[in-house]
């Protein structure tokens, strides 16, 4: 019988999945595999390992997994694991890129019970317990993190209003952890995503003391029937209201 707590399990799954993904990628690249084969193999490996471990260790808990089938048990469950076994599949398929991640989160009784994000190619893991400390960046000018390929409209509005410098990265997990690390101050996204894209990053960011919400300031709620959760804001607490005013006007106020 396992003695792992949920937080320990989430962290181990994120780390071990990441280790296996790094080994697989190195092996496939050394064999001259095509990028699409690397991507597909990584998705399959991550899903299989986490699904098998949760089935073995938490058999009564339903799972919402990007790569898995819908588990209808989750609709009435108090505990649901929300998993992205390989966030940033495109970056995983490019040799030398580090901006991909593994997400493992537990949504329990309407809040996060545990969460972990690993950045395997960088050898880093971030968890809700123990939570990472919020760094003191000491910057005069904020940095906003955005996509490699395009800047979502909401991010452009916030960047212009706050006169922020832009930093570009791949996966949602890598972007969110750049804020947690202090490499950036805000992550604003409105281009569409799913619950598994943001659950573990939001869990870790909240545990570290960062502000998280939808881009209208409303709470991010998970295990909704529709997995679509298209937007989010993760930022240092002092930047939350200025960022939301940039989107909704100077009269916007966060609820007390």
UniProtKB/TrEMBL annotation:
Keywords: Magnesium, Metal-binding. It comes from the Bacteria. One of its GO terms (molecular function) is metal ion binding. It holds the Pfam family Inositol_P. The keyword Transmembrane helix does not apply. Gene3D superfamilies: 3.40.190.80, Fructose-1,6-Bisphosphatase, subunit A, domain 1. Mg(2+) binds at residues 66, 84, 86-87, 197. Signal peptide: none annotated. InterPro entries: CysQ/Inositol_MonoPase (IPR050725), Inositol_monophosphatase-like (IPR000760). Its cofactor is Mg(2+). This is 3'(2'),5'-bisphosphate nucleotidase. CDD domains: CysQ. GO terms for biological process: 3'-phosphoadenosine 5'-phosphosulfate metabolic process; sulfate assimilation.
